[in-house]
Amino acid sequence: MSNNFNDQPIFILGNPRSGTSLLRLMLDTHTDISIPPESHFFLWLEEKYGDWNIDMLDAYINDLFASTKFETWSFNRDKLKLYLQQNQINSYANLTGLVYSYYAYVKNKGVKYWGDKNSLWIEKLSKIKKYYPQAFYIHIIRDGRDIACSYKELSKKHSVSKYAPKLPSEIEVIAQDWTKNINAIELFFTDIEADNKIVIHYEDLINNTKSTLTKVLSKIGLQPTSAQMEYYKKPKKEIEPEAFFDWKEKLTKPPDTKNIGKFKQELSSKEIEIFNNLAKSTLTKYSYL
Q1: Is the whole-model pTM more than 0.85?
Q2: Could you give the maximum distance between any two Cα atoms of the chain, in Å?
């Protein structure tokens, strides 16, 4: 891959609660990468602004600032508009890249790559390829039974945040969704060049953080930094927006191996049996069975 900031972004893909936020934070801590907290404006505004022309700028900015979660980036509207006006915007892909570029700019980061972590990408993968045909993809996979534990734990929290994820708690639904999401990304990957994709395991990211990050970063010509190993020491406001911490508080702590295989204690034998039966092929494929 080249280091063309606008043309080759990094997209983190994975089932919810697979470690996508952890990976985002680790990568964003690198001096050459900027991956903001999750926001969905690229997808939501694409239909209206995909055929871009500069006369759309004011309307676009209005819709951008009205997009859910975008306010967590804490942008100044006038300064963003000036930043965009100072650049020659020639496409919707370029426009989106410039918004991400501005995020890096306000964080005083002169980066080579911008990136995005977004649970909705699983349903809209074709949109990435349409606008960024040279994008780099990281698919992070976690044992679906541990994901089931996380889903069930979240269902008990009753978060008051308007951004709290709405996830199923029925073991059958979780198993089916986990398999479906992984299959969707696998299918998408069949049309992606080997140099532009990588699959990693959450368990490897926890147990062998440095070597796993080295494996990922080497694909884009970078090396891990010491700060990435200590991502959790960043000021809390630089880890995730306050509104997200109800379900992301673990990001303020070092990688915890207790999150691996916890289904053996937290799921009933019947739940494990149901999940194993429904997702046997995928569990086996990724060495979880």
Answers
A1: yes
A2: 60
